[in-house]
Design goal:
alpha/beta; Rossmann fold; OB fold (Dihydrolipoamide Acetyltransferase, E2P); 2 domains; 5-stranded parallel β-sheet; 5-stranded antiparallel β-sheet; 7 helices; 30% helix
Length: 260
């Protein structure tokens, strides 16, 4: 059986790999209740279709948002509200959590310079378009994932690594060994605990003692998975015959989202 390579000159669409232990907190703030409900409906549909857990807070009172110290991962803010502008709300949210991904909703371009100073992620013009919001959220989730780190602990030591850098995790004595593109790190989590944490659309078990990142597969062979490290070295992981069909199906599902 020939090997299947995923590095064939195609641009791979980013797969949404959000840690299952995380609950994204999303704020929608607009003084018009109809607008709030419209945005909430679209955003809720997006997270439902992508199987991402999210808590969506919808608010029409900008004063209430400013009075609270709540932290959000994302925010959809109308730029023109009677009490406080969306840019004021954005500054408040970014002061609390500098990593908040801010979408500004506006029908005017006059706020562009001020918004860029605040590192606004994207403008959404009125009237709102479902496809544009979906596309913006895809980009936002990609940005979020690229900055998502996993905490590794081993006794008295702890460090954070980017989820995107994990090649595979394997059993190591009574602990696990996390192999990244550049390093090997001992973790006191069990393989079962890792399986509960990692998103199953991006991390799959080809063997009872391994969890492999689909994102970092160089090619799939009959008996092996070939993973790519940063120094151009490759790592081979055996596939259990019992799990081969299931693994191949998940891998095909993953790469079927390629954007040619």
């Amino acid at each position: 059986m020939p090997s299947l390579s995923v590095r064939s000159g195609k641009v791979i669409k980013y797969i949404l790999c959000v840690l299952r232990v995380l609950l994204l907190r999303v704020l929608i703030c607009d003084d018009e209740i109809f607008a709030v409900e419209s945005i909430k409906k679209i955003v809720s549909e997006y997270f439902s279709e992508r199987n991402i857990s999210a808590e969506i807070v919808a608010e029409t009172d900008s004063t209430k948002v400013l009075a609270e110290k709540a932290s959000f991962d994302m925010a959809f803010l109308d730029v023109e509200m009677p009490k406080h502008s969306g840019l004021e709300i954005a500054k408040h949210l970014l002061d609390i959590n500098p990593n908040t991904i801010v979408f500004i909703i506006t029908s005017h371009q006059g706020y562009l310079d001020s918004a860029m100073d605040l590192r606004v992620f994207r403008f959404l013009p009125k009237p709102l378009d479902r496809e544009r919001i979906f596309s913006g959220l895809d980009s936002a989730i990609r940005f979020y994932n690229e900055n998502t780190r996993v905490l590794l602990t081993d006794g008295s030591t702890a460090q954070r690594i980017y989820m995107r850098d994990i090649l595979y995790i394997t059993i190591h004595k009574r602990k696990t060994l996390v192999v990244t593109k550049n390093d090997e790190i001992i973790s006191d989590r069990s393989l079962a605990q890792w399986k509960e944490i990692l998103p199953d659309n991006c991390f799959v078990q080809p063997h009872y003692s391994y969890i492999v990142s689909l994102q970092n597969i160089e090619r799939l062979e009959k008996d092996n998975i070939v993973l790519q490290k940063n120094n151009n070295e490759t790592v081979n992981i055996k596939i259990s015959q019992r799990k081969y069909k299931e693994f191949k199906n998940k891998f095909f599902e993953y790469i079927s989202q390629e954007n040619f």
